[in-house]
Structure formats: structure tokens, C-alpha cells
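# step 3/5: fold
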Amino acid sequence: MSEEHQVVKVRYDKLETIEKMGIKSYPNDFRPKDKAKYLKEIYRDVSSEELDKKDLEFSLAGRVMAKREMGKLIFSHIQDETDKIQILVAKSELPEEEFKFFRKYIDIGDIVGVKGKLIKTKTGEITVLVRFFKLLTKALRPLPEKYHGLRDTELRYRMRYLDLIMNQKAREIFRTRTQIIQYIRDYFISEGFLEVETPMMHPIAGGAAAKPFITYHNALGMNLYLRIAPELYLKRLLVGGFERVFELNRNFRNEGVSSKHNPEFTMLEFYEAYATYEDLMKRTEELFFGLALEIKGTPVITYQGEEINLTPPWKRIEFLNALTSLGGVPAEILKDREKLFNFAKEKGIELNLKDPRIGKWWTKLFEELVEPKLIQPTFVIKFPVEVSPLARRNDENPDFADRFELYIAGKEVANAFSELNDPRDQRKRFEEQLKLREIDEEIPPEIDEDFLRALEYGMPPCAGEGIGIDRIVMIFTDSPSIREVILFPHLRRKEDL
């Protein structure tokens, strides 16, 4: 029997003994009135003498994180959702049987309720002198060793509940995530946007270029696709008369995982009638600047050792200019497929010879050569129409779209464009896309005829944007991997490793 199994057996035996004593093993009748963090903050500067005079009773509940015996005294720390606080179980304050019970049957990991007065130890630590305690939950498995088990990244992601118990930084990341989402939601509502919910299962995959997850609906007798993006449904709402809409929800893409990609991720998408992609650049600057002040108290944040300034206005650079000036691609070979292919090969970048879209090649080169260099917030504008099938053509150069992508810390954070609302041009682009389906499996397998029908009823001129929430959280919490900011990231099953 392994050491861990021995410990588990001992704890099961303790639980059985406790029940034989007539003590309820998992009661639900203790109601804590106080929180560790607030007690420590409120009484931090109150002297020990003043605390003695007040003789106030407090009640808390939390998980036992440490326990050390010193004769007739047992010092312990319990942790609630806010913080840890020390408790002191003294033989002089409790009936002898209760003191013995705490010493013998309360283990690290157990959840207990305590009542008592606040004191300060000789070292000045705020402590609850326990006058009553109750076992609320018996932990039947031991917590991992603080400085060993939680360095195992795989363990942290697979058993996030342990990570949250042991790692205060992890808890703070997810509190910050909630703050970020709440701020974004409040911002758009205050700007007159209507929050909506659109389908998660689509009869036709579309709205972005990605391989979908496929499921089957028994009653309808048809395949459905977990949504890649809500774009086409949100545009239908603009056709229907809503002029400002947004959705904060999950997207699903059946692609590889990396430090920047998870198959299930959270996106914000918003659409604004009578606006252009240039208007959305200003709105995006305003949103991120306000978010930085709300979360960090300053527009200057640090990510992985890089200082990033979110103060508007941000740099803007055209796509092809970025490819030549930052990516090092000679301007004279941009349209020469043979020379461009050889250049990419020298850089170790594989291009698809079967793909006739030069814009697709440019995009691949951009991702490899330019994207990692865009540390300060940068709008890359005017992408090729070939890789922007839902975006409005630029009036001056119709081979390029009125589109931008926002990059921060070497990551694509947002994608936006003035929307294509001409149903004739949209149909043509869908049809051209479909011809390339054999060489690009990310292209939707069929045309969304209902969306085209909606456009024929007339969609107002508008602009729309998608912002990756997970990547924002990464940047604002200085997290190097997307798995750090998703509570339960997808991992291979252990038996498949």
C-alpha cells in the first residue's frame, strides 16, 4: 500500500470513529458571520489591549491549512475564500474532550467552523482564540505538499480544485478574470449596447475560418456544429433592427492546443450600426484604457517582463508595411509566388503550394515573422480581402478590406472590420471560398443561404469586433499560458499519455 493510500485509510478510519461517537460527519448547520481578510484588515492596527477590552465574538469557517501543537496549545491556520487567519485552540478555553478531539481528529484539509475572540500573539499576528469549533467536512485525502506537488503544472490543471486551495495567485487570477468580464459588460451596457445570447449549436459551420466540432441531434435527425463564432447570428439582429448588440460567451474550434489556444474559449463580439472599423479602433482604445485603470490603477502594465503602455492613441500600421518593415519580407517579392515561397522556405515557414490565395501566404508569413514583435498595442490595418471574406472592401483599394487586428504582447487580441452588407459581393465570396474547400478544411462546407437572405432584406452599414477574453486575462494577470486563465482547460486523458 502506498503512503498516500495509507493516509487515506487512516482518515476513513477517523471518520468512522467520529460517526460512532454520534457526531454528524457532514453537518450543514454552521453559519459563519465573518471573513478572514476583513477581520485582519479592520483590526490590523488595534492593539492587543484594546482587543482584550472589546472581547467581541467572531465566527468563521474555512479549511485547515496548518496545524502545530505546543503542549496545551494548538496553533492552526484556516483559509476561507478571502484569506488565511490563525486560530488558537487552547486547553484552557475548551472542555477537555473537545480539545482532545481537535488534536486527534482534525487534520490538515478538514473544513471547520470556529467561534471565538480576537487576540494578537507576541509577534502581532491576529488570531482567533477558539471557544467553540465544529467539524464541517472531513477531508479524506491529504493536501499536496506546498512546495512539491503544486510545481507539477499538469497536476494544477487536471485538479484545479487543489490548485485553488493551495495557490493564492491562482485564486486571484480568476477573481481578476471576473472583474475584467464585469467591467466589459458594464462598459457596453453603458454605451447603449444590448446584451444578447445566440445559438451555441449551428446547422451550418461559419462566421470564421476554423475546423468545427460536430454533434448529432437525434430528434431533428441532423448534424449540428458547436459554434466557431456568433458573427452571422449577431448580424441578423442588426437586420432585425437592433443597432448595437454584444455577446460574451464561448466559442469552440477543433484545433490544436498551445500557450495561446484552447479548443473552448471565451469571446466578446459586438456590432455597431452606422460605424466603421476606424470608430471601433477608438472604442477599443477607450475600453482597454478604462479597463487598465479599473484593474491595475494605471495604464502601464507589465507582461512577462515587458512594460506595456495602454494609453491612447495606439500605433497603426498597414498589413503589407508590417510584413516588409517588421517581417523583413522584401517588397519586390510580395507578389512573386516562386520567390515568396523560397523566402519562406529559408525561414523555415511552410506555405501551401496548392493554395492560390497570395493573401493566405502573406498571412502565414505575418503570423510567423511579425506577430511576435508587436509588443506595444498596435492596430494592423487593411488586410487582404482574400482572408477577410466577411469584411467590407476598402474604397480606394478593393483588394484590401477595412479591417484591423489588435496585437498586444505579441498576441492577436482583437479582430474587427467594417462589415460587408452587399449580399451580391458576399455570395460571390462565399462561392469563391467553397471552391477552395478541398485544400483548406477550415473553410465552411456550405453556404449559409439564410444569412444571405437576411442581407437581402438590408443590413445597415456597420462595424463589428471580436475580442479574446482569455488573452486579455493573460495580459492583465501576467500569465504566460492560456491554461492559467481557464479554470478547467482541456487536457489529454492520462491513459492516452
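# step 4/5: annotate
The first strand starts at residue 57 and ends at 70.
# step 5/5: archive (pending)
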